[in-house]
Amino acid sequence: MSRIAKNPIKISKEVECSFRDGIFSAKGKLGQMQTNVNSNYNININDNEIKVVPNSENIKDPNWGTTRAIIANIINGVTNGFTKTLELNGTGYRASVSGSKLKLELGYSHDINFDIPKDVKIECPKQNLIKITSINKEKLGAAAAKIRSYRKPEPFKGKGIKYIDEYIFRKEGKKK
Q: For 82-163, CATH number?
């Protein structure tokens, strides 16, 4: 039995939640999101908490905890939102936002233009910082991983795009 799935999800007064026909939707101050819920589970919405309950007594499906986590992320997203910050390390590495494109100069012979997804907001407070915010945690992580994949940090000099809280294990260079 899952311990995480048994925990109720606390909600505040400003969040409106509904569950109809297998679709859970939540509306908060930052926006509205919805997701399909597996037919093996039912969602009980009370005054200030939500519980994910399996339809049968002896269910041993690992998706119970996953379903609870997805719903918790939706509620957290519409109330607080999610943020990831990327840092560019390297000589001449720059990032800038122009319209719906993120322009990256990463030492290649050409610039990389990244199309910003519609649910994601990207801003560059400095030339070497990229701040990504969204209410959808899945799209936020996918966008951050795609931007990071253009130039992953290398272990010798640490050049590349890394998350702000990421530690790069450094290696020693060649010896004579």
A: 3.90.930.12
Helices 63-79 and 137-149, packing angle to 10 deg:
90
Alpha-carbon distance 30 to 82, whole Å? Answer: 11
Domain ranges, ordered by start, for the chain = 3-79, 82-163
> What strands, in cross-sheet order, belong to the sheet with 49-54?
9-10, 49-54, 41-45
Fold (CATH) for 3-79: Outer Surface Protein A; domain 3 (3.90.930)
Q: Sign of dihedral through CA atoms 103, 106, 110, 114?
A: negative
Q: What does pTM read for this prediction?
A: 0.88
Whether the per-residue pLDDT at 2 is higher than 90: the answer is: no
Q: Lowest mean pLDDT: which of 58-62, 95-99, 109-113?
A: 58-62
